[in-house]
Amino acid sequence: MSPTAPTTTSLSPDWPCQVKSPGSRDWERTATRWLRDLLPARYAGYSPLVRHHVLLARHAQIQVQHEIRAVRVALQTSRAELPTLGVAPAVIENTIRMYAMELEQLGRLARGVRLVMEALMDDGPAPRRTAAQRR
């Protein structure tokens, strides 16, 4: 293999497609852009998060975990609370399905954030996860 040939790294299926592979050119830039996009826009001005990628990843991890908790509460209380708000049964069922899909998406995001954070800390390839570790 020539010195300029890209290295092939087996990344976890949970590695975010928006983030280049660790060790590749500009991978940290793509990682920080992706992490910033997970946070509310007002966080873009906080210099510790802008300057320290691991802090940004940590905050994104906390943010996603809070979103997971919020969606779980919304899902668990939908059948009891939405009828009292005058929401139609069909809308309630669609809302429950929406929350369930969002929980799946947030779970994938949480795993991706964890992998990116580990790679930023190691500045190396993200480890592959087994199915049991992704749960």
The sequence of SSEs as H and E is HHHHH
Q: Which segments are poorly predicted (pLDDT under 50) over 5 or more consecutive residues?
A: 1-8
Helix percent band: 55-70%
Query: How far is the first residue's CA from the last residue's CA?
Result: 37 Å
What can you see in these coordinates?
The chain has 135 residues and is mainly alpha-helical. The chain is built from 5 helices and no strands. α1 packs parallel to α3 and α3 runs antiparallel to α4 (89-122). The longest helix has 34 residues, at 89-122. Residues 1-8 have low confidence and may be disordered.
Short description:
With 135 residues, this protein is an all-alpha fold.
Features:
single chain, 135 residues, mainly alpha, 0% strand, disordered N terminus
What is the element layout, followed by pairings?
Elements lengths: L26 H11 L9 H5 L1 H29 L7 H34 L8 H4 L1
